[in-house]
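Anyone opening a protein record will find just a pair of labelled lines. With that in mind, the following record should read easily:
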Amino acid sequence: MPGPDGRDDDVDAPDGQGVPFRPMSISEMLDGAIAGIRRRPRTTLGLSVAISTVIQVTSSIAAYFFIGDEARDEVTPDVLLESLGAQLTLTVLGLVLSAYGILLLSGLLAPILGRELVGLPIAPRQAWRDARPRLGRLAATAAAVMVISLGALVLPLVPFFLLIAADVNPGFAVLAGFLGFPIGIGLMVWLYLLYVLAVPAVVLERQTVGGALRRAVTLSKGRWFRTCGTLLLALLITVFMGFFALRIPFLFVQLLFFGDSSGSESTMGALAVDTVGRIVSWSVVLPFDAGVIALLYMDRRMRREGFDLDLRSRGRSPSALPARGDGQAAGDTAAGDTAGDGTDREDEFIDLWRTGPQPARPGTGAHP
């Protein structure tokens, strides 16, 4: 079947290319994220293992010192309640850190998927070279998305906590909580999905933090529910793979060797096995979620701004790149060779994604 612009899909997605050069369906974005892991396992899994190790080791250290010896025994109702509260707090902390890690990884993987999208070869350590100039802004943008989302969650709950602290009629506190929690969760999800595309934008478009957030709002306009559905499906796959399929062997090891033991040594042993299990499971699922976010950004660029049509008009589509005939090898572009005039070839790839006033080109447009 012909693609959106009349070209055959065989042309838009040549053999071996995991990301089609056209607007993608939800299933294609999910498949493309998996294909990105499969085609670049050393890069994607290497970055993911590094990020997952930092997150999970931090969570495990906090768990060991935060719960305490008495709470581990759980011998009285008061201690049991304290332990449950501590475990809930640690679970929320782990989820926040994992979400932040997904955002960081989506920014690091965006250049890899972007090069594959336009048909450019990917040299070793290319993700690091493309993201390094904006690493600080990437971390700040990911933090800004998390702070905005969590702030939206906490703000409607302020009356609930104030009423509890003031020790007034419990009915008012219950009413404030009954209204505040759903509103806070709704605002958190809405703002997260509204700003999540800022992370790939800050790397590929070389935006500032504020500029990336504004770009995310522009790209998400009118497509919030599509973004929500795509990331919800990715989340369901992540939960199934990360919390069930990949962690079951490690849970069996915990039960087999430390299920009937007590004491600090057994606690540390069980925690160590659990930490390794979380590192393994999250190292596999983090690139999937991050890849889906990066592909959502690219899909929005093509649907709203006709990014693929613009590149085709400039002869930069996957089908046109091998036959450019201007004496410039695509491999030189990926490897970052320098031209005779001192221009870095890597900048050419980034320039494809930059926004701003450009000369009018015939045949460009946006997809519906």
Observations:
- The first helix runs from residue 9 to 12.
- The mean pLDDT is 76.
- The two ends are 18 Å apart (CA to CA).
